[in-house]
Amino acid sequence: MEATPRIAGLASCTCAGSARAGSAGRHTGGVSLHCPATLYIARHGDAEYTHAHVMSDEGGWLTETGQVQVTECAHDLADRRIAAVYSSPMQRAVESGVLASGELAVRHRELAGLEEIRVGERAGQPWSDPVTREVYDAWFRGDLDARIPGGESGAEVVARFREALATIADQHRGEQVLIFTHGGIMSLVVPRLAINVRDDLAYLQFVPNAVPARVEAGDEDWRVISWPGSASKDVV
């Protein structure tokens, strides 16, 4: 697994304090934690698709390369005492979660809300589709009211992903968890949950398969400790 760049100027968080904080940070939707949960949020392993060159909401399946990537990810986290592995319900993420949980000897759970951004009426269009690109660009500029035709608005995407991550964090206070999701949605949402990075941290970046971001979800704020994105397409 490739090394993940660490966000400059951050120290590792420690579990401190025994009382629930009075109010949670504005980004986390009301979650308040005794101790920070450490979330390792990763894109699924390399996958194949029935229609690989056009947009769709199909689940895909892991390639042999993807299986190796996920196995290496699990091995790299073996000394982190991972408490559980979660995944999106989409097949490529489920397969990643099941494989990693087996390597780490912990339970795996699918969680709705972690799915990739839904393509709506743009299904069947090439990945270079200008309509979808325009919506994505609007989201990263901060216009979350923009909507993929027949699909989701940016606000809806952020809300469901934030709720899923908050649910995990609230159940794993003081623990470390591995989460397999998707490159598009984690790039849009994760920076928006953190107080220490720009919302557009991941704009025009590529997220490698099975290389996790590290996010610490604390009492009053969330922080991105490391982010795996790169401007080079060679990482995917």
UniProtKB/TrEMBL annotation:
<protein>
    <submittedName>
        <fullName>Histidine phosphatase family protein</fullName>
    </submittedName>
</protein>
<dbReference type="InterPro" id="IPR029033">
    <property type="entry name" value="His_PPase_superfam"/>
</dbReference>
<dbReference type="Pfam" id="PF00300">
    <property type="entry name" value="His_Phos_1"/>
</dbReference>
<dbReference type="InterPro" id="IPR050275">
    <property type="entry name" value="PGM_Phosphatase"/>
</dbReference>
<dbReference type="InterPro" id="IPR013078">
    <property type="entry name" value="His_Pase_superF_clade-1"/>
</dbReference>
